[in-house]
Amino acid sequence: MILNVRGKNIDVTPALEDHIQKRLEKLEKFFEEDTEVQVVLSVAGDNHIVEATVFFNSLILRSEESTGDMYASVDMMVDKLEKQVTRYRDKLKDRLRQGGIRSVNETLPEEQTDTEEPKVVRTKRFILKPMHVQEAILQMNLLGHNFFVFMDADTESINVLYRRKDGNYGLIEPEF
Fold first, then answer.
1. In CA terms, which of 1, 5, 32, 48 is 20 to 30 Å from 60?
2. What is the pLDDT of residues 36-51, one digit of tens each?
3. Residue 61 lies in a domain
4. Alpha carbon distance 136, 148 (integer Å)
5. Residue 119 included in any domain
6. β-pairing, 2-8 with 36-44?
7. At a CB cut-off of 8 Å and minimum separation 6, what does 132 contact?
8. In terms of residue numbers, what domain contains 35?
9. Beta-carbon contacts of residue 60 (< 8 Å; ≥ 6 apart)
C-alpha cells in the first residue's frame, strides 16, 4: 500500500504516522501493492478527526471517525474500513458462487452489468438563483431537504450544500 498521511491544524508526529501504518497493515492482505491510501488528520475543538480514503479497484472506500483521542479515532477508522472491505469481498464471493468466474468478471468496475442497476426515474429542473451560503442553508431547511444546489453569488459557480450527520453543513465547491 502507498500511504499518504497529512494533517490539518495538527502536526503529524512520527509515532502517530507509525501507529497508522501498523494499524493499516492488517488491511494489506485485501489490497494490491500499488493501492493508494490517503489519511487526513485534523483537530476541531476537542474532536480528533481521522479521514481515510482508499482508491481500490477503481472503487473508493472512505471512512471517517471522530473521538477525543487521535489514536482511538485511528483504530475506529481502520475497523470501519475493514468492515467495508469485507463486505465488498463477500459480495464478490456471492457473485462467484451464483454465476462462476464470468459473474465475478462482470462485477469488476470495467463493466457492471447487474440486472437491478439503479436508473434515473425522475428529472427535476429549476432556475438557479444567485445566493450566498447562508441563504442557501435557509432555503434547504425550508424545503426540508438534506442537500441543496445553488449558484454562489460571489463566484457565480454552482455549489452543493449538504447536511452532515453531525448536524452541521458541508459545501462542495468546484475548482476550475
1. 48
2. 899 999 998 889 999 9
3. yes
4. 7
5. no
6. parallel
7. 152, 153, 154
8. 2-107
9. 53, 54
The CA-atom distances, in angstroms, between 160 and each of 28, 31, 61, 90, 129 are 35, 33, 21, 34, 13
Q: In 3D, which of 31, 35, 72 has the Cα closest to residue 50?
A: 72
Q: What percent of the chain has pLDDT over 70?
A: 87
Work out whether the CA dihedral 155, 156, 160, 161 comes out positive or negative.
Answer: positive
Cα distance between residue 22 and residue 13, in whole Å: 14
Measured CA to CA, the distance from residue 10 to residue 33 in angstroms comes to 28
What is the pTM (predicted TM-score) of this model?
A: 0.54
**Sheet with strand 36-44: strands edge to edge:** 2-8, 36-44, 47-56, 59-67
Q: How far apart are CA 79 and CA 117, in angstroms?
A: 29
Q: What are the phi and psi torsion angles at 17 (to 5°)?
A: -65, -40
> What pLDDT sits at residue 58?
60
Question: How many angstroms separate the CA atoms of 171 and 92, rounded?
Answer: 34
Half-sphere exposure of 6 (CA within 13 A, CB side): 5
Give the model confidence (pLDDT) of 113-168 as tens digits. Answer: 445 778 888 888 877 889 999 988 888 887 778 999 999 998 889 999 999 999 89
* CA gap 158, 128 in Å, rounded: 9
